[in-house]
Amino acid sequence: MRIAAQYSHLNGLEYMLVHHKDLWDEIQDAIAWVDAEACKTKISREKTMRGRRLYSPIDLNQQFRSSFRELGWTERRNTFWVTDDEELMRGVYNRPEVEQKQAIQAAGREPIMSYNQTDFVKDRIAVEVQFGKYAFVAHDLFVKHLSFFVAGIIDVGIEILPMKKLEREMSSGVPYYERDLVNVLRQGRGVPAVPLIMLGLVP
Q1: Residue 75 has pLDDT above 90, yes or no
Q2: What is the pTM of this model?
Q3: CA geometry: angle 123, 124, 125, nearest 5 deg
Q4: In the structure, how many helices (H) and strands (E) does the chain have?
């Protein structure tokens, strides 16, 4: 596959080029190693596309997983504790995980364990590959990447999406770069408050 479009939010790409040029090269290599045509294995059952051979998100994700892991990128989970008290949560969110739980218990509230998980992390850079449902992209951009950034785990989040040209050859409900680019731009320059790179791919 290849990168057809990219957007740098809050200087995410510029940060990569200055501080992690090696990782930026690795990301491009991992993308280039994915053989999209080998993933055109899904026979559609949808009324408007019945019988058409489409790109399989499952197969694409498997190839991305293999290529990134070959380069030493690993999945990462950020665990934290929550409760229903807004004021309490504001005071504990940036503390270490153990202190969050203790503070919630000390306030007489029930601590509820929660977590965010991202596909690939290496040297404080996170990569999410999103060929699933379009609603998941907003969660990646406005929750996952932001959560990892605020927790001091990453410096840049990278979101990999299909371009509309590729999305047309996939099942309905899949995200595409052009729409999610607008979703970020309409929030204004500072939202989400995390350096990001959005990448749009084609076969």
Answers
A1: yes
A2: 0.88
A3: 95
A4: 9, 8
